[in-house]
Write a structure and sequence with these properties.
Length: 509
């Protein structure tokens, strides 16, 4: 029997995907999502579609699913109507609903129904983190300090806490941003309060609360900073640092094993350079490959006439950073023959990322950028190629610096010096965040010939979503979903630790 999982604040399902992917020695799922709750419309649609995918045994997903992803004239309604039993199961599992105090009775009833009397189960999830992130706090405090102090998202963890208190799972996993460690509300350290509240969940005269553990192998004590997991140390091509708290009910005599840290580093190049090469679009003017390449060609020929730039960067631009191949803008689906050769890491994880039945790549369309940003992207990527680091604002020629009111402060190193950031080919990426939905300036592709920001599929690769994981909604929503998710391959490692822990509980009963 698979171990039931209840997933709160599920987003597009990264944490649940990792747990769901685990198999026992007989090939049976170790965990099964019984209920995942998410309020966002598009994230829920993604969650529901992936739940539908998981209703089928490995390798038995109907061809119509792939036709839907490839945009071959089949709607989601038609897909579901042709597979009614699996569709109903997915719709029951993925629940679009807001976790809020006023909905407590309805939520509790759905969780109780989903568990159906099962006592050995796990609660997972991460309350929305925008209120805790350093950038989010800076923005709110900058515009209106009281807005930050009164942000109700500070206390969404209490919905998670209420579920612990009411349903008393043997084990829980809670995820959040590293910024929560330094977040304070009305002078109170929010993370220390959360730890205190979690440890006392359900505590009364007849029962105790939870013992809290970190999965950090080097933590000596469960101090706030010890709960941080560095994704790049766990075979993830991204420097994503997240707080992971594991709780074990105090009446149970087990504790989780920490995650194993890898010695090798997975890079951006390992993760994305096999994907089809595409070009950026041009916004606010005529767009074609000829116009695009002409704009960049003109810029490259004028590098010596304009304000001097570093000689090594200028040479990199003039040596032919502009693609001679006819590149398209990509699309919601691109045939596999347009892709390149996978890295050693991707070959090792082909069982995870690749799906021969998909026959291509989804969610791989390029953004459009204004002409001046095309120049900045070309300069930045050539700078990174020449110097093996990304340029700060002070490293840009004056005519390429953005016309922002605080650009001089940035050039002086006072704030946001990395406004245009190239993701370096030979290093893990920076943290993929939901802000990628706003613009691509922090996520410039390392290939100088493409002159663009990362696509949704490339961001999803850095987050370790399988290629057959399709993100619903418009592109802005897709980026937001990917940026808010837990990397499924990291979640799988967390799930493995929980499986071993729950296995000990099962064997002891």
């Amino acid at each position: 029997m698979s171990i039931p999982v209840i997933d709160l604040f599920a987003g597009p399902g990264g944490l649940g995907e990792g747990f769901s992917s685990l198999r026992d020695q007989n090939g049976n799922p170790v965990f099964k999502i019984h209920l995942s709750i998410e309020k966002d419309h598009f994230a829920h649609k993604t969650l529901e579609l992936r739940s539908f995918f998981r209703q089928f045994p490995d390798g038995k997903v109907p061809e119509d699913y792939y036709r839907y992803i490839r945009r071959e004239g089949i709607t989601k309604e038609e897909l579901f109507s042709r597979n009614e039993r699996e569709a109903k199961a997915a719709q029951k599992e993925a629940w679009r609903f807001e976790l809020a105090k006023e909905h407590a009775l309805e939520i509790d009833e759905r969780i109780k129904e989903a568990l159906d009397g099962e006592q050995l189960w796990v609660l997972i999830g991460g309350p929305p983190c925008q209120a805790y992130s350093i950038v989010g706090r800076s923005r709110m405090r900058g515009s209106d300090p009281s807005k930050y102090e009164n942000d109700p998202r500070h206390y969404l963890y209490k919905e998670y806490l209420r579920t612990l208190t009411t349903h008393r799972p043997p084990v829980f996993v809670m995820e959040n941003v590293k910024g929560i460690l330094s977040s304070r509300v009305n002078g109170e350290a929010i993370f220390e309060k959360i730890l205190h509240d979690l440890s006392l969940a359900g505590h009364n005269d007849s029962q105790k609360g939870y013992r809290l553990y970190t999965l950090n192998p080097y933590a000596q004590k469960a101090q706030p900073g010890d709960f941080v997991i560095h994704a790049e140390k766990h075979n993830i091509p991204q420097r994503r640092h997240r707080v992971i708290v594991v709780g074990v009910r105090s009446d149970l005599d087990v504790k989780p094993e920490p995650l194993y840290e890898r010695q090798t580093t997975v890079t951006v190049g390992d993760a994305i350079l096999d994907l089809p090469r595409i070009r950026s679009g041009i916004s606010k003017e005529l767009d074609s490959f000829a116009v695009w390449s002409g704009i960049l060609e003109e810029f490259s020929k004028n590098t010596g006439r304009l304000e001097p730039m570093p000689e090594d960067v200028r040479k990199e631009i003039e040596m032919g950073c502009i693609s001679r191949d006819h590149l398209t803008l990509g699309g919601e689906f691109i045939p596999i023959e347009l892709g390149g050769h996978p890295s050693v890491w991707l070959k090792e994880y082909a069982w995870w990322f690749m799906d021969e039945r998909l026959k291509g790549y989804s969610n791989h369309s390029a953004r459009s950028h204004i002409r001046q940003d095309l120049f900045r992207y070309l300069y930045a990527s050539c700078y990174a190629k020449a110097r093996k680091t990304f340029p700060r604002i002070a490293d840009f020629p004056y005519y390429l610096r953005p016309a922002h009111h605080n650009v001089e402060d940035a050039a002086a190193g006072k704030l946001f010096t990395d406004r245009f950031r190239v993701q370096l080919e030979d290093k893990p990426s920076t943290t993929v965040v939901s802000h990628i939905s706003k613009d691509g300036h922090y996520f410039i592709h390392p290939d100088t010939t493409q002159c663009r920001s990362l696509t949704v599929r490339e961001a999803a690769r850095l987050q370790t979503f399988p290629d057959n994981y399709f993100f619903e909604g418009n592109r802005t929503s897709q980026y937001t979903q990917v940026g808010n998710a837990v990397p499924p391959l990291l979640a799988r490692q967390i799930g493995q630790s929980m499986a071993e822990l729950l296995g000990m509980l099962y064997n002891s009963t």
